[in-house]
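Milestone 3.1: sequence recovery, worked example.
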């Protein structure tokens, strides 16, 4: 069975969000992509308190400057599409109030006819937490746990009741309800994160940085799930951060998904053979405009399917 392929929606500065998001979403569905994805960057600090991913001295990429709200972006894609899943990769959950986030995701799922996928994470930017965090950065794991609790309550039957550290819901009707249970995907970068995923989530959302590494991580997670007694399958959606160039990249140290269409597809094939269910392809960051994004996305999809991905 072919690996499902997803595409990132245009969120970088070179795009007209109101015009390009529906256009790219509609075209991607027509091409054959099975899902569309957004990511979250709340702000672009100048100067940054910390480097990218918390690594000292590592600069933030320009594509992180002025990123539109992920859930507004997904909303623009809802009425432009009929079939594709609409996901977040990832939403930094502790930057959102748990109750309002659960309501927004539920409303979006109801509006889309049951197509939302909630990829949630805890983030790493101290500047984002200072501006928008609902609790200190050090408590991010606890906030994510409460978000999961509140989502389960709000998406469940009325009357909804919940009492937590950040959220208190007296018996109340809360709607609209999701059209179906919204799948929740989580990272698994530590034992605590793996435990949360295995016990509470539907799937795993890693960053694909090499087929061998991805395969090892996938086997480790599956073994851990078996040890914890999980029998329900774990859905897997790997994120491929591509750097497209029209010409082949001939460097001996070429990073995965860096180069022309042939090179990107070669890497897609290698990562698909690991056995993940879906690969989300990030192409929007290096495309010059929406037309180039659509053209490259079409070429990558056709070449991937021709290669057996």
């Amino acid at each position: 069975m072919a690996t499902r392929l997803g595409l990132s929606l245009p969120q970088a500065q070179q795009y007209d969000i109101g015009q390009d998001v529906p256009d790219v979403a509609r075209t991607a569905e027509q091409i054959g992509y099975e899902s569309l994805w957004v990511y979250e960057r709340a702000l672009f600090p100048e100067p940054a308190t910390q480097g990218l991913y918390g690594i000292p001295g590592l600069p933030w990429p320009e594509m992180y400057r002025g990123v539109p709200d992920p859930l507004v972006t997904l909303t623009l894609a809802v009425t432009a599409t009929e079939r594709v899943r609409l996901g977040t990769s990832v939403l930094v959950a502790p930057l959102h109030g748990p109750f309002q986030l659960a309501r927004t995701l539920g409303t979006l799922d109801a509006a889309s006819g049951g197509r939302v996928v909630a990829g949630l994470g805890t983030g790493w930017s101290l500047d984002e937490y200072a501006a928008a965090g609902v609790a200190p950065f050090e408590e991010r794991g606890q906030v994510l746990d409460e978000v999961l609790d509140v989502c389960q309550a709000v998406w469940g039957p009325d009357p909804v009741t919940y009492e937590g550290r950040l959220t208190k819901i007296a018996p109340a009707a809360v709607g609209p309800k999701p059209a179906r249970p919204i799948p929740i995907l989580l990272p698994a970068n530590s034992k605590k994160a793996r435990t949360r995923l295995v016990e509470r989530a539907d799937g795993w959302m890693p960053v694909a940085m090499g087929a061998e590494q991805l395969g090892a991580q996938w086997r480790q997670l599956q073994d851990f799930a078996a040890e914890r007694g999980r029998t329900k399958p774990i859905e897997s959606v790997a994120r491929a951060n591509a750097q497209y160039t029209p010409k082949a990249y001939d460097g001996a140290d070429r990073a995965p998904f860096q180069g022309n269409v042939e090179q990107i597809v070669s890497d897609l094939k290698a990562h698909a053979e690991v056995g993940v269910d879906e690969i989300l392809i990030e192409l929007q960051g290096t495309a010059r405009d929406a037309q180039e994004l659509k053209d490259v996305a079409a070429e990558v999809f056709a070449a991937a399917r021709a290669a057996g991905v």
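The longest strand covers residues 235-241. The domain at 4-307 is CATH 3.20.20.30 (TIM Barrel).
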